[in-house]
């Protein structure tokens, strides 16, 4: 059975909502979702073994309440303008006009197509291109997908690409045009695109957060040899396991509910007492005692296994943060 309404994640609520509006409406809604969102909602649908009438009523009622508080005149105005201009002027002229009146809003169709492709295919498309073009592609993808693509590229390219991404500040229109020409050869799509402001340092850190531990170590070591200052800035922005200390108790409790005991036992091997106590303090006394016993009984673990478990927990934390279930960051007003 599905969980009680108060314990449902954002993705599960979205899944129940789509189930409630019917197949045709759900399909129409999902056509406007990003690949990452489709994946999360799809996974949530797969976990729902049953939905009660009370849960459906609660989710639909919540949607109705929130939708009623939104001013429809301000909702999706830019998307509305884009659709109207395309219908009135045709796509080519409309995109040219949109780049002037709404800079940064027109989507790059080639990049949007890549977001639906597997990492290996994307790597095959860009591997022969100029490194700066490759860096722009990676910075334009979702961080998780970009991390997978980075892992598919030759090892000798990786640190240079992360360095190029970290130094991106503004993507030149000519570079974006060149990017679409590259994609046109592979995807049969071409478009003129406006300049796009990017935070390259944040993108580089987010990509490195999503690669496996071995790849992270090799890229960061190579990157440090070529540009230690940039490497330090990337490392400062990366979300690491120790950063979970910054979670408030409510956030930590929410995170713990999503982690399997086996994963937690492995992840906590070798971490300092303060972080272990952060987990213990947000569990019931019985659960904390059992976890301590499991930790004591656990023999030596390979560092790679511990890091993999920690990466898994960090991925869960970032997903919950994306869904608004908790806030994670390195202090100040910055959250990821």
TrEMBL record:
- Keyword Membrane among UniProt keywords: yes
Question: What is the membrane topology listed in the Swiss-Prot or TrEMBL record?
Answer: Peripheral membrane protein
Where is the protein found, in the record's own terms? Bacterial flagellum basal body; Cell inner membrane
Per its UniProt record, what InterPro entries does this chain match? Answer: Flg_Motor_Flig, Flg_Motor_Flig_C, FliG_a-hlx, FliG_M, FliG_N
Per the record, a Pfam family? FliG_C
Give every Flagellar motor switch protein FliG N-terminal domain span.
Answer: 7-106
Q: Give all residue intervals belonging to the Flagellar motor switch protein FliG middle domain.
A: 121-189
Instruction: Give the chief site where it resides.
Output: other
Q: Tell me, what does this protein do in biology?
A: FliG is one of three proteins (FliG, FliN, FliM) that forms the rotor-mounted switch complex (C ring), located at the base of the basal body. This complex interacts with the CheY and CheZ chemotaxis proteins, in addition to contacting components of the motor that determine the direction of flagellar rotation.
| The protein's name in its UniProt record | Flagellar motor switch protein FliG
């Amino acid at each position: 059975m599905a969980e009680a309404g108060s314990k449902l994640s954002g993705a599960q609520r979205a899944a129940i909502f789509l189930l409630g509006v019917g197949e045709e409406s759900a399909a129409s809604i999902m056509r406007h979702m990003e690949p990452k969102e489709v994946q999360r909602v799809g996974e949530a649908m797969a976990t729902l073994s049953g939905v009660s009438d009370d849960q459906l009523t609660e989710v639909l009622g919540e949607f109705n309440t929130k939708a009623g508080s939104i001013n429809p005149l301000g909702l999706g105005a830019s998307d509305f303008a884009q659709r109207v201009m395309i219908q009135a002027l045709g796509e080519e002229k409309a995109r040219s006009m949109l780049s002037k009146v709404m800079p940064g809003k027109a989507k790059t169709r080639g990049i949007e197509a890549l977001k639906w492709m597997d990492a290996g295919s994307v790597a095959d498309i860009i591997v022969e291109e100029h490194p700066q073009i490759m860096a722009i592609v990676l910075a334009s993808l979702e961080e998780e997908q970009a991390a997978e693509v980075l892992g598919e590229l030759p090892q000798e390219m990786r640190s240079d690409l992360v360095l190029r991404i970290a130094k991106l500040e503004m993507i030149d229109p000519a570079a974006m045009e060149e990017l679409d020409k590259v994609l046109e050869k592979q995807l049969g799509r071409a478009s003129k695109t406006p300049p796009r402001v990017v935070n390259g340092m944040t993108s580089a850190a987010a990509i490195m957060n999503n690669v496996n531990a071995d790849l992270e170590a090799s890229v960061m070591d190579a990157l440090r040899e070529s540009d230690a200052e940039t490497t330090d800035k990337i490392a400062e922005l990366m979300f690491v396991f120790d950063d979970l200390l910054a979670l408030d108790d409510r956030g930590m409790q929410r995170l713990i509910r999503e982690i399997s005991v086996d994963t937690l036992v492995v992840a906590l091997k070798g971490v300092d007492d303060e972080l272990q106590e952060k987990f213990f303090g947000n569990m019931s006394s019985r659960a904390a005692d059992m976890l301590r016993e499991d930790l004591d009984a656990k023999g030596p673990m390979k560092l790679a296994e511990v890091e993999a478990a920690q990466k898994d927990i960090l991925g869960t934390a970032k997903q919950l943060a994306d869904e608004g279930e908790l806030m994670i960051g390195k202090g100040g007003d910055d959250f990821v």
